[in-house]
Automatic annotation (TrEMBL), chain A:
The chain crosses the membrane at residues 72-93. GO terms for molecular function: sigma factor antagonist activity. Residues 238-305 form the Protein FecR C-terminal domain. InterPro entries: FecR (IPR006860), FecR_C (IPR032508), Ferrdict_sens_TM (IPR012373). The keyword Ligase does not apply. Pfam families: FecR, FecR_C. This is DUF4974 domain-containing protein. The lineage of its organism: Bacteria, Pseudomonadati, Balneolota, Balneolia, Balneolales. Residues 97-191 form the FecR protein domain. Keywords: Membrane, Transmembrane, Transmembrane helix.
UniProtKB/TrEMBL annotation, chain B:
Keywords: Sigma factor, Transcription, Transcription regulation. It holds the Pfam family Sigma70_r4_2. One of its GO terms (molecular function) is DNA binding. Belongs to the sigma-70 factor family. ECF subfamily. This is RNA polymerase sigma-70 factor. It comes from Fodinibius halophilus.
Amino acid sequence: MKKNREISSTFRCPLEEFEEETREDISQLWADMENADIAHHVQCTDTELAKAYKNVKVEIASEESTASQFSFITYAAAAVFLMVATGIAYLLMPVKVQVPAGETKTIQMSDNSTIHLNSGSVLSYSHLFNWWSRNVRLKGEAFFEIKSSEHPFRVVTGNASVEVLGTKFNVRYWPNEKDNMTSVFLSEGKVLLQATGTNNSVTLHPGKQSWISNNHPSPVAPRPVDPTKALAWQQDSFAFENQHLSSIFKEIQRRFDVKINYHPNISNDKITIYLSDIETAEMAIKDICRAKGLIYKKKNDSFLIYRN
Amino acid sequence: MGSKNTDQKFQDWAQQIRASDEEAFSELFHEVYPQLLKFAWRYTKKKSAAHDVVQKSMVKLWEIRTNIDPQQSLKSYLYQIVRSRALNHIRDTNNHTPIENINHNRLKVESKTLSKIAEPEDYNKKMIKFIEQLPGRQREAIQLSRFEGFDHEEISEIMDISPRTVNNHIVTALKTLRKKWDLYKKNKKGSRYEEE
C-alpha cells in the first residue's frame, strides 16, 4: 500500500476515472510500465550531441544568409519599384497653381509661355507639360501669352477647350457662375474654341470674344469686344455688363479676399459698369452702391450691403 | 516535467530566444536534445532519422523564434514540432500511410527492434509489445504521460487535441493494457509456479 501511494504522488494517469476497486491494479500497472519504454535504450552520446549542435548551427547560418540575401534582393527590388512608382505617380500628378483670393499670380511655363491668373483661380497641368502636348486645365480666369511650339497649347475648362499655337488670349470659366460660362477673348493670333466632347467650334480673331455655357453648348458667334473691358482684371479694373449683383460681389470677394453679405432682395439686380484702377474692395463697392442706390456698412474685411 | 525551476528556465529561454539570443538557444538545445531524440525515435524507430527530425525541428524553432508565444510552454511547443516532423517522416517513408495506421507498420519493425533491447526481464518486452500494439493516438498519449512525464494539458498541446481527449486516450489505453497484462500474468503464473 505504501508503495502504491508513492506511485500515486507522481501519477499522471487519471486514477479517478477508474472504479475504486480497480485503482490499485491500475497503479500497479502504471508502476510495471516503468521499464517498458521502447525508446529506453536510445541514448545521445556527447559526440552525437556536439555533432547535432554543429549541424543545426550550420543549417541556421546558411538559412539566414539565404534569407538575408533574399530579403536584400527583395528590399532592393521593392525600393527600385517604389522609386519608379513614385516617379511615375509624381509625373502623373498634376502641378496645381492655386491663387488665393485677394492676389493674382503670373507663372512662366517651361515653353516660355506666360499665364496671368486672376484671384481665386486654379490652373493645373502635367509635369510632362510640353513633352508631347501643352494642356492646362483652368477654373477661374487667366490671360495667356503663348509662345509658338511644335505642340498646340490647349486650355481645358469644364465644358470647353481653347486650342492655340502662339497667341495672347483671355479665358474665363468660373464653375457654377453665370451658367457655367467659359468665355474667351483673343488679343493676338488665332485660337480655336471648342465645346468639350463635340465638334462645335469657332475660330477667334484678335479683338473678338466668344463663349460657351450650359444653355449655349455651342460657341456663340464671335463678336468684337473692347479689350480694356475684356481684360479689365489685368488693369486692376472691373467691367460688368448687365451682370447680377450676386456674381459681381463674388468677383469682388475673390479679387480682394473680403466677405460681402447682402440682403437677398438685391441679388437679382443687374448693372452695367466699368470700374477702373480699383485698389480696394471698398472702392468698387462704393461705386456700385452709389450707382444702384444701395447702402453699405464695413466692419474689418466684411461688408453688409442692403437697400434702404 | 515539472518543477517550478525547469518551468522558469524554459520560460526564460523562450524570452531570450525570441530576442534572438543564441546562447539561450544553445543552452536549450543541449538540455532538450537527448530527450527529443528519444521521443522522435519512438516514431521513426531509426536513430539517424530521429537525429534528422530533431535537428530540423531545432532549426525550425530558431527560424520562427520571433513568433514564440512566451505564454505557451516552450517545451510542449518543441515536442509539438518534433512530433509533427516525425509523423511527416513516417508518412513520407511509408508512402502515404494514414497516421492511424502507423501502428500497424510499426509492428513489422517491432520484433527486430525488441530483440535489440537488452532488458533482463521478459515482462518488459511483453509490456513494450502491449504498448506498441495500442492504437496510434492512445500510444502517443500514454507514452508522453508515462515516459516523458507531461501532464494532460501539455499533451493536449503537443498532440493538438483537447485535454479531455488526452484523458480518454490514456484511460482507454490503461484499460486495454490492464486486460492484456492480467491475462499475461495469469498465464505466466500457470506455467511457472516458482514465481510469486
